[in-house]
Design a protein that fits this description.
Layout (H helix, E strand, L loop, with lengths): L12 H16 L12 E6 L5 H12 L3 E5 L13 H8 L5 E6 L4 H8 L4 E6 L5 H15 L5 E6 L6 H10 L5 E6 L8 H9 L4 E5 L2 H4 L5 E4 L10 H7 L18 E3 L20 H19 L4
Parallel strand pairs: 1-2, 1-3, 3-4, 5-6, 5-8, 6-7, 8-9
Length: 305
Amino acid sequence: MKRDLIDITDLSVQEIDRLITRAEDIIARPEEYREKCRSKKLATLFYEPSTRTRLSFESAMYELGGQVLGFSEAQSSSAMKGESVADTARTVSCFADIIAMRHPKEGAPLVASYKASVPVINAGDGGHHHPTQTLTDLLTIKQEKGRLDNLVIGCCGDLKFGRTVHSLIGAMSRYANIRFTLISPEELRVPESVRSDLLERGGIDFRETTSLEEAMPELDILYMTRVQRERFFNEDDYVRLKDSYILTPDKLRTAKHDLAILHPLPRVNEISTAIDDDPRACYFRQVLYGKFIRMALILMLLEVE
């Protein structure tokens, strides 16, 4: 029976740990994996723009010896003719062994998974889920901190529309002794559903603040996010909030020496480029880790040993 990945909670903690272990083995022994997906094809169905996620999936499949087909915008697909996501998924199942889909509409990859005869990976659906980014984040934290428990994690910026933050909270909440500090303007606080369903119901220690400087000294992880223009209905609200939090060297003065700074990217101006060479800046290493964890995921869903 085929397996899909739509939400990070589709994976157990044990499965996540096995994926991370496999990714670490890929990092250590890349030559052992170069032919693992020979003759296999990945279809990348991207209905909205993407650089890192799409190219990461493609690079992952090529490094496994497989092939890639698909489209990088809705305008170059039959969606422009009115074809449904369900019909596209059924059609592409005839050509590919596995599908990675990004769509601006929440739930579209889930619909595709019902109709596709091959595994479907959600590569981001609106403001909803982005599970492979979360796997990337977890591998990054493991590589940088050596553990996935006993951490204080600060999430800063757009916590209302940021699907990466919602998925990260859901995943890290299942590890021991995790505490969240949620840093945002009042208008961009985490949704009530995340607060009640993931944090309060799970008994997770968290606090909310509007001050990055006040939160900085306690953090082991700082997860920065951009204020996303594409999630706003009102341009004035976007302009007013877009520069709410900008991380500069001065704001890192009180940070721990081994703080890990993550960002799902793309960055606009919420992290100063003056921080890029700071050893605590992990966000470009994070991009590379994304390729390795997606290689591990493709192998798992295709049941390749």
